[in-house]
Design goal:
Length: 265
């Protein structure tokens, strides 16, 4: 099969776990040269080794997406290693980690440090990734593709105020940036997953009970798998979506589509 990203160069952030790892493996399986970046350098390198073991091409780098210089360095490293940049997948994201016995932190109990921490990764991290990539795309003068991982929390009220508002910023950045860059042939889209049993909420999301309740919240009845999200990102990164920009694509088992009818009885 001819890969959907044959010969392309992709930088993926948050690539040491969950969606970012799944996307690194998938993009590479479709022919991309991947730079897997993560704040956890060991995890990024492990992802790169997994890609190589599967016959693909990848390098790993430690990078805090909240640090603009570190992100610019990662783009420079990708260009040095592979010659150019075609795709950035701004996927790194975090939420407020609950205290013992706490669910989603109530807004009134939220501190400035919660906002600063989450916004620094979820919003500033995406801004940094977009700006660095755009500078490289403009130097190449041949378009480019930006994919962000937002969340269903950027589309509907979900996941708490800190997280939801940070992801709302990503969905709106996606639309407005898409308008600004369309004339240059640079596309900007997001994937918007619902609940996935990853390391995002360590322990909590991986218990069988959590998986069952995650699945029950989705009309299609199962949790989102990181590969579901990676598949959507692959579509948006590839030429299959060459006439699509400014879209926030739900990968949510139908959660954001509406309200399910009550079952009889
Ligand atoms: N898991 C869910 O239920 C869920 C739902 C909706 C959206 N999302 C979004 O999906 C994306 C991927 O999350 P995941 O579920 O794979 O989580 P995950 O925790 O398994 O993976 C996230 C990765 O990002 C890395 N990371 C964290 N801070 C970073 C930083 N400052 N710089 C670089 N890397 C950093 C982590 O080390 C980790 O490897 C995130 O944007 C998240 O907000 C997750």
């Amino acid at each position: 099969m001819h890969g959907l990203l044959e010969g392309k160069v992709a930088v993926i952030t948050g690539a040491g776990s969950g969606v970012g790892r799944a996307a690194s493996l998938l993009f590479a399986a479709h022919g991309a040269n991947v730079l897997a970046a993560d704040i956890n350098a060991d995890a990024a390198n492990e992802t790169a080794e997994m890609v190589q073991a599967a016959g693909g091409t990848a390098i790993g780098r430690g990078c805090d997406v909240g640090n603009a210089d570190a992100v610019a360095q990662v783009i420079a490293d990708a260009v040095a290693a592979f010659g150019r940049l075609d795709v950035i997948y701004n996927n790194a994201g975090i939420t407020v980690q609950p205290r013992p016995g706490e669910g989603i932190r109530r807004f009134v109990d939220t501190g400035q440090e919660d906002f600063d921490k989450v916004y620094n990764v979820n919003v500033t991290g995406v801004v940094n990734g977009c700006q660095s990539a755009i500078r490289q795309f403009e130097a190449q003068k041949s378009g480019g593709v930006i994919v962000n991982t937002a969340s269903v929390a950027g589309l509907i009220g979900y996941g708490g105020v800190v997280y939801g508002s940070s992801k709302g910023a990503v969905t709106q950045l996606t639309r407005t940036l898409a308008m600004e860059l369309a004339a240059q042939g640079i596309r900007v889209n997001s994937v918007c997953p619902a609940g996935m049993p990853t390391n995002f909420l360590p322990g909590l999301a991986q218990s069988d009970a959590a998986k069952a309740s995650m699945g029950a919240a989705h009309p299609l009845g199962r949790p989102i798998d990181p590969i579901d999200c990676a598949n959507a990102a692959l579509f948006l990164a590839s030429d299959l979506s060459s006439n699509i920009t400014g879209v926030n694509l739900p990968v949510d088992g139908g959660l954001s589509a509406g309200v399910m009818p009550r079952r009889p009885g």
